[in-house]
């Protein structure tokens, strides 16, 4: 027992003993925030405006300690919205009653975006496009809900109700919802999860045969027609987003498997599992190849060596076949549990080893943790492990080849003002293209713009410098970063001694 305890302490304190990790200057570090069922935020429905705000700020402060730079918030759980919308009712997960606005005169999404941007975090608006009622048996929708206003659009499958993707008016309706958010808010991305057509199981069929007869004359089989419906929808949403705001990204978080080798000998992965292509009628590889989405975030929730969802096999596959888009990996921190019946998840080692694997592949440009509450609960000290290793330094977001470049302007002057009262590094923003700033701190003769020398990433125009840092003799340089996350040349800080 003592040897085991000593080993666990060594893992916590010295992760470098076990994992080869590198510090990436550019890397997405994201967290999903689930509003459905009050899983992450708010903690329960019916909280006051101030309580909801306080809870979200607490989440962001916790994320900031872990150098998280992207927050993916579920703004449309199922046919509803956590913001005022022309197309959807207020979500019950805010007020406790579907169609009723939350307490206080505030727009939750507008508030969350401002708080994220204040911390140099991107805000990705997460939507479930097709699911319209989460559980129609226990929580039926009110009469004014879209599922009751347009019952001919709805297909019931299990306990859920879905908008029928085969109806052109449905695809237009959901696209309008996306466009409303893009027009109204200063978001950084629209994010879809893995729910497209439902996975048909136990000989239960998604009842869209009448729609198929009406619209599917050009297709020999039902699945090809369904895939075409989703493809048309994804392309339309992509075109609509980028025609409105070229800087807003479009990302999808699909099943871990696109296709199995048994169904596609050339490109399929050599595993046996449910797939996006065959089971959900979602041809994710087509979307990445044609650049209809700007990033893909596969949910690789199996451990390394898993019989059906081997993480090491899957991460290699996504890296190989998605060269046209940024790949970020969904990581299953929700599985970490000392009492797990699966030994792979009884320490944080599994996640650390997965992140180490990610770093080996050029197309893998970051990761996302599912989900917020598990990161804040810090199972098996995953936060401390990240802070000592992969997340030790702040990180800029990756550049995206599908998004137009915005060139920031180099700062004219940067000063380090020293006095007996305080020391401040300060500068003046000299361009509206400068979205935020990166501060480098170093001791070498020549500056190194590596991850290890990133001191701060900030929206502020000054930061405090401690007396200890002054005594250490650090040098500082500051560069501007644009909304597309491109970096200007840095400006050296000149010292003004007021003592």
Radius of gyration (Å)? 24 Å
**Largest sheet descriptor:** 8 strands, parallel, barrel
Question: Which range best describes the helical content: under 10%, 10-25%, 25-40%, 40-55%, 55-70% or over 70%?
Answer: 25-40%
Walk across the major sheet and give the strand order: 1-2-5-9-10-11-12-13
**General form:** globular
CATH class division of the largest domain: Alpha Beta
* Unreliably modeled segments: 10-17
> Could you say how many structural domains there are in total?
2
How would you sum up this structure, described in words?
With 499 residues, the chain is α/β, with parallel strands linked by helices. It has two domains: 366 residues, Alpha-Beta Barrel (TIM Barrel), CATH 3.20.20; 84 residues, Immunoglobulins (Immunoglobulin-like, Sandwich). Helix content is 29%, strand content 19%. The protein has 15 helices and 20 strands. The strands form four sheets. The protein has an eight-stranded parallel beta barrel, surrounded by five helices. Strands 17-16-19-20-14-15-18 form a seven-stranded mixed beta sheet, with no helix packed on it. Strand 1, helix 2 and strand 2 form a beta-alpha-beta unit. Helix 2 packs parallel to helix 4 and helix 6 packs parallel to helix 8. The longest helix is centred in the middle third of the chain and has 23 residues. It is globular.
